[in-house]
Amino acid sequence: MKSMAFTRKEFIRNSTFALAGSTLIPAILIAQNRHKMVNQNLLSNSTIEKNYTLKNVLLETGFEYDTDGHVISTTTSLFSIQIADGKIKAISSNSNASDAIDAKGLLMLPSFRDMHIHLDKTYYGDKWQAVRQRAGGVKGMIALEQKILPELLKKATYKAEKLIELLQRNGTTFARSHVNIEPTSKLDALSKLQLALENKKDGFGAELVAFPQHGVYYTDSVPYLKEAAKTNIDFIGGIDPFSIDGAIEKTMDFTVQLALDHNKGIDIHLHESGESGLKTVEYLINKVNENPVLKGKTYLSHCFVLGRLEKSKQQEIAAKLGDAQIGIISTIPFGGLIMPIPTLLENNVEVMTGNDSIVDHWNTFGTGSVLQKANLAAQVYGQTTEFGLSRMLKLATAGPTPLDDKGNMQWPKVGDSADIALLEASCSAEAVSRISPVKLLIYKGNIVF
């Protein structure tokens, strides 16, 4: 479907927001229908003119404190936001301009970022399938994947687009997606995912990780990883070097060198929670310190071993990760394993989150909402206060929050990319606590829905 652009006046004339009960209906749908678009998908790539103004936008302005200095509420005010050429051009006192789009007092937050997901292989968009009975651990799952991937690849582009639409409905405009690079898929999964991302580029962005799901050496993925590294992917991935490949040093040395040779980042799946997991973390820290160019662009996904360490060891490793600028991408596991995310944050470790699987042969519990992940983190770590809840928002946004820890306004700023979610909430704390619904999503100035 080709993108259509509406003039600002035409959009305003045809698409004044309408209220239906408590649901704000983005009447961009009405404009789309009037133009008789064949595909009336809510999450189409259609955009309006790049320059427009939102009025009645609720922004956080500070914290209110009690006599003991504790944050008890968040102060807010209504503003007008001018958007031009994909960026925030001006932030001004609220205006009643007739040609501005009325945001109806919705809370404006940075749009969300899912930093660990597999867009290339999913059942989503097709019939429901629960996880099959597993046998043989991870290597048993590798054998299963080798059987089912050829069939999954047939509709991989379509299903990736459906997953992207699910993420968009939950306020996400950006993802870091791992994509299988191994002898079964070769580079087919990559090409099919790249097509989906191209089709959705007006409303969604991504960075890609070349992921040897079947091991670097357990199945000979080396030639395919080398080929993928020559493309415009962003990260070289990996998985459990000891339990899959049987050698930490050999696999990690290959991964690090490939990243260095092609100026890529690194993002390693590490599920191993025993001695081998700790050795892998320490080995990677050493390699990054030996190659400072990798600082700030190296990540460990899951890294469950951190949740198995004694408190003193957690603190030690967290400090080393912070010094090496190695980030942790966590899906916020709970139950028998609690990740030390507060300790990581205290040591300046970048912590981000993602859905990982939505519904596939690994897992079926993904919701598509990283705001729900922030809510889960707040519950797991007892962040029930106004201040604590508001700080958990950074997990959904992968960093930016409207207010800093002192209550100073830090987002949005003039010049920021217009990547915006408007939610039915009074403040960040409520949005996290209630997993508030997203009513309007903007990516690089494009109104997605």
From TrEMBL:
Q: Which Gene3D superfamilies match?
A: Metal-dependent hydrolases, Urease, subunit C, domain 1
Q: Name one GO molecular function term.
A: hydrolase activity
Q: What superkingdom heads the lineage? A: Bacteria
Keyword field contains Hydrolase: yes
Sorted alphabetically, which Pfam families does this protein's record hold? Amidohydro_3
Keyword tags:
Hydrolase
Domain (Amidohydrolase) ranges: 100-449
Report the leader peptide range. none
On whether GTP-binding is a keyword of this UniProt record, the answer is: no
Q: What is this protein called?
A: Cytosine/adenosine deaminase-related metal-dependent hydrolase
